[in-house]
Amino acid sequence: MLVAGFQEEGSVVMPQPAGLISVLLDRTARIDERDDAATDLEAHSGEHVVKALVDVASSPVEDKLVLASVAESLGRILARDGGCPEDLLASLHPDARRIAEEVLRASR
After folding, report:
1. Rounded to two decimals, what is the model's pTM?
2. Measured between alpha carbons, how far is 56 from 74 in angstroms, rounded to an integer?
3. Rounded distance between C-alpha atoms, residue 49 and residue 27, angstroms
4. Most C-beta atoms within 10 A of its C-beta, which of 11, 23, 69, 99?
């Protein structure tokens, strides 16, 4: 049985958002699992969440589906938590930057 705030990974139950970050950053995980993790991270805040999303959103070789979900979640977190430094946006893959900027504009 899963408890709110925890995610089962194999036979280990990990507290959130650490479990989601672990899945997102695991390039051996299935794309749909990484995409779900990126989407679910939107519900969390904190420097470690933003850093994980930025790391993936900055990759020039990231899967397009994961990249889009990461950018949407990042944009929503930044909009909710008070904005976005321009240098952070500049560090993103161009597709991720476009999506994050669209989300930020839509939230105003």
Report:
1. 0.85
2. 10
3. 17
4. 69
